[in-house]
């Protein structure tokens, strides 16, 4: 079998979601480890004040691409940024762009999606289901397409406890749901994300039946483990937002079951699995759709209780800058102060927002699933020794304590842009806050007790009893000390 870089040699790859967390890492890795790939078409939607080319320029100039820039300074020539709004009719592609894509695309990676758990159902269906359908229609017109790779989620069938590497029947017929958008109001339905991702899998399986389809299902994607360098992460989504909140002191408790499996998977493992899975399908043309549960729980289990321990211990040693202790009362008072000084209150809003995020995550931090990973293991065994090294997908080697520490330090450095040189000042600030917090709590307890004593005879009796007991103990201690002299 040809190696992974040999397979991608001379190929034209189409990538959606290249401006997102996973898409960026995939683009970097593809260009670095397969330098002879012919071109990569990235479908990017225009944003206010920035063309798709400008957006890509900004991304390609970022630190994530430093290593690639060193190894292959001309890599930008291979990237063609194409304007495309996936939720518009025919993906809003111009006729010329469509022609180029249809004529020359060999491999598609469909990464774009809305990953907000509480996205309204209409928008989630529009992007996660209908846009996928449109992309499949386009794929069917392509003259040289070899593989359609759908990036899904391991939680697409979280209603099951044991999840095999197959596409299960959808929760509802996607066609009926799409039709119902005509009359349905938006409503407020939690976790439309997972619901629509399950529908997308079904759409890909049914409507892409004539294509060579593969699906990669990552669980919760975390910072990079090794590539292009350890610790890289650039978003607040999922647990990284909670880690930051814990580090900043906004979040003091987390709803989770200590023994529930924390199925985190490094972003570079997801990218390597996706590139290898497309390689396998392209070379072997399997008769059935290939599904890969890109997870860690069954091969290298780790639990939420352990995550909590390592996050707290990392941020104790390496506090975040401007951390503040979370207490609703000071937050509330600070908001009043902001209001009085003509600024808009934000503390209570932030805390409420985080608690909402925690409620959404609670389902995942309190339950465990078992994912079958036979296809991932098969894929690993198919890689030649060189590909095994350059496209590592073996999560058995992942050292969790080190990885969680790296996730925390990655959020500090790349999401919050805090430098390691600021650590001594952050530690000093952290200790000061801890003392303020203890002081505040002590005053609060004394105040409450004082009010209690003033109002209740029983409280007074208990208080006198405790004070006289202490006095007796002290007198006894003093007397026994004098006798010894
Ligand atoms: N992150 C995770 O923990 C995780 C876990 C399991 C599976 N996944 C899957 O991995 C894939 C990538 O996720 P991610 O974490 O990288 O998400 P992300 O950072 O939010 O990126 C989403 C990407 O989709 C693009 N996009 C959204 N709406 C679009 C539209 N209307 N037209 C064109 N492009 C649009 C975004 O472009 P803009 O920059 O213009 O917004 C962005 O590039 C998704 O399929 C997701 O379901 C992610």
Automatic annotation (TrEMBL):
Pfam families according to UniProt: NAD_binding_4, Sterile
CDD domains: FAR-N_SDR_e, FAR_C
Domain Thioester reductase (TE): 15-273
Subcellular location: Peroxisome membrane
Limits of the Fatty acyl-CoA reductase C-terminal domain: 327-418
EC number: 1.2.1.84
InterPro entries per UniProt: FAR (IPR026055), FAR_C (IPR033640), FAR_NAD-bd (IPR013120), NAD(P)-bd_dom_sf (IPR036291)
Membrane-crossing segments per the record: 436-456
Keyword Membrane part of the UniProt annotation: yes
GO cellular component, one term: peroxisomal membrane
Domain of life: Eukaryota
Gene3D superfamilies, sorted: NAD(P)-binding Rossmann-like Domain
Entry's Gene Ontology molecular function annotations: alcohol-forming long-chain fatty acyl-CoA reductase activity; alcohol-forming very long-chain fatty acyl-CoA reductase activity
GO biological process: lipid biosynthetic process; long-chain fatty-acyl-CoA metabolic process
Reaction equation(s) it catalyzes: a long-chain fatty acyl-CoA + 2 NADPH + 2 H(+) = a long-chain primary fatty alcohol + 2 NADP(+) + CoA; octadecanoyl-CoA + 2 NADPH + 2 H(+) = octadecan-1-ol + 2 NADP(+) + CoA; hexadecanoyl-CoA + 2 NADPH + 2 H(+) = hexadecan-1-ol + 2 NADP(+) + CoA; 18-methylnonadecanoyl-CoA + 2 NADPH + 2 H(+) = 18-methylnonadecan-1-ol + 2 NADP(+) + CoA
Entry membrane topology: Single-pass membrane protein
Key words, A-Z: Lipid biosynthesis, Lipid metabolism, Membrane, NADP, Oxidoreductase, Peroxisome, Transmembrane, Transmembrane helix
Subunit comment: Interacts with PEX19; PEX19 mediates the targeting of FAR1 to peroxisomes.
Family: Belongs to the fatty acyl-CoA reductase family.
Role this protein plays: Catalyzes the reduction of fatty acyl-CoA to fatty alcohols. Catalyzes the reduction of saturated and unsaturated C16 or C18 fatty acyl-CoA to fatty alcohols. It plays an essential role in the production of ether lipids/plasmalogens which synthesis requires fatty alcohols. In parallel, it is also required for wax monoesters production since fatty alcohols also constitute a substrate for their synthesis.
UniProt xrefs under PANTHER family: FATTY ACYL-COA REDUCTASE 1, MALE STERILITY PROTEIN 2-RELATED
Record protein name field: Fatty acyl-CoA reductase
Organism (species): Cavia porcellus (Guinea pig)
Organism phylogeny: Eukaryota, Metazoa, Chordata, Craniata, Vertebrata
């Amino acid at each position: 079998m040809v190696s992974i870089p040999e397979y991608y040699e001379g190929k034209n790859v189409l990538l959606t979601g290249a401006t997102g967390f996973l898409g960026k890492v995939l683009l970097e890795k593809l260009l670095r480890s397969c330098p002879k790939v012919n071109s990569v078409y990235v479908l990017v939607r225009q944003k206010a004040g920035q063309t798709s080319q400008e957006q890509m320029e900004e991304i390609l100039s970022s630190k994530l691409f430093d290593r690639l820039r060193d190894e292959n300074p001309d890599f930008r020539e291979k990237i063609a940024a194409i304007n495309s709004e996936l939720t518009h009719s025919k993906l809003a592609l111009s006729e010329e762009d469509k022609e180029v894509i249809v004529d020359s695309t060999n491999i598609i990676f469909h990464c774009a999606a809305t990953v907000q758990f509480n996205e309204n159902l209409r928008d989630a269906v529009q992007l996660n289901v209908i846009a996928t359908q449109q992309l499949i229609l386009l794929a069917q017109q392509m003259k040289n397409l070899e593989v359609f790779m759908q990036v899904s989620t391991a939680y697409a069938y979280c209603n099951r406890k044991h999840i095999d590497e197959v596409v299960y029947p959808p929760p509802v017929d996607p066609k009926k749901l799409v039709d119902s958008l005509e009359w349905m109001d938006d409503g407020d339905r939690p976790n439309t994300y997972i619901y629509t991702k399950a529908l997308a899998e079904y759409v890909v399986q049914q409507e892409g039946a004539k294509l060579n389809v593969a699906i990669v299902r990552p669980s919760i994607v975390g910072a990079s483990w090794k590539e292009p360098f350890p610790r890289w992460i650039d978003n607040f989504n999922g647990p990284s937002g909670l880690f930051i909140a814990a580090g900043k002191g906004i979040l003091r408790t987390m709803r989770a079951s200590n023994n529930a499996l924390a199925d985190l998977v490094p972003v570079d493992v997801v990218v390597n699995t996706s590139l290898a899975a497309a390689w396998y399908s392209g070379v072997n043309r399997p008769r059935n759709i290939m599904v890969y549960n890109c997870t860690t729980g069954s091969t290298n289990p780790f639990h939420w209780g352990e995550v909590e321990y390592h996050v707290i211990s990392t941020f104790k040693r390496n506090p975040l800058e401007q951390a503040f202790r979370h207490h609703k009362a000071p937050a509330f008072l600070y908001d009043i102060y902001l209001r009085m000084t003509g600024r808009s209150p934000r503390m209570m809003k932030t805390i409420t927002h985080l608690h909402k995020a925690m409620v959404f995550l609670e389902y995942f931090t309190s339950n465990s699933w078992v994912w079958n990973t036979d296809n991932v293991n098969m894929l690993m065994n198919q890689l030649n020794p060189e590909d095994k090294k350059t496209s590592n997908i073996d999560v058995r080697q992942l050292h969790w304590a080190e990885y969680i520490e790296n996730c925390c330090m990655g959020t500090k450095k790349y999401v919050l842009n805090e430098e390691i040189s600021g650590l001594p000042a952050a530690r000093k600030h952290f200790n000061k806050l801890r003392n303020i917090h203890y002081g505040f709590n002590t005053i609060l307890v004394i105040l409450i007790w004082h009010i209690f004593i003033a109002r209740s005879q029983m409280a007074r009796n208990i208080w006198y009893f405790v004070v006289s007991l202490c006095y007796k103990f002290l007198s006894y201690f003093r007397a026994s000390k004098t006798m010894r002299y």
